[in-house]
Amino acid sequence: QVQLVESGGGSVQAGGSLTLSCVFYGFSRYFGWFRQSPEKGREGVAAIHYSTGSTYYADFVKGRYRISQDYNQNTVYLHMNNLEPEDTAEYYCAALSRVVEGAAPLSFSDVDSWGQGTQVTVSS
Length: 124
Description:
With about 120 residues, the protein is mainly beta. About 0% of the residues lie in helices and about 55% in strands. The strands form two sheets. Strands 2, 4, 5, 6, 9, 10 and 11 form a seven-stranded mixed sheet that branches. Strands 1-3-8-7 form a four-stranded antiparallel sheet, with no helix packed on it.
């Protein structure tokens, strides 16, 4: 089972930026990020194919978030820009077996491993 360790969460004002990091130990076909808030529950945010680098985004973050990976550091990053209070959530890194094209490319049922989560708070 892949182990995942997130870092980089924190507090930022609306319009600001944060970058989350996820160090992974093991192999997975895809790595991605989910977020969870009391208002919206847990939702998929973005994913990246480990071998090809193809990226997938939920519609609500397109143009604001970018996922990337560093093969040498075994790390996946989530670069978040133009943050909104609605982005406030606990963010979780995940190893996934499948991702699909479309508005909601990540599914909980395709997650093989979860990280422990990191809190992101955006104030207005």
